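BUG: 3D viewer hangs when loading the predicted structure for this chain

Environment: internal workstation, default settings.
Expected: structure renders.
Actual: progress bar stalls at 90%.

Input used:
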Amino acid sequence: MKKNVGNIDRVVRLLLAAVFIALFALGKVEGTLGIVLVALGGVFALTAFVGFCPLYTLFRLSTCPVKKAS
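Structure tokens produced before the viewer hung:
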């Protein structure tokens, strides 16, 4: 797996994951929507820690900086 999630993207994913989980934990979002947000937050956190997003490969995207050839 080649990394395709850059540092800024990782921070944004972790922040969104924290917000989604906090909303559910504080009871602001309940039911099916709450479970979906917690699952999405888990996916965001996982992709942030691993540095790889499978959806980015489908659309041939990458937020990693391009390394210059020396």
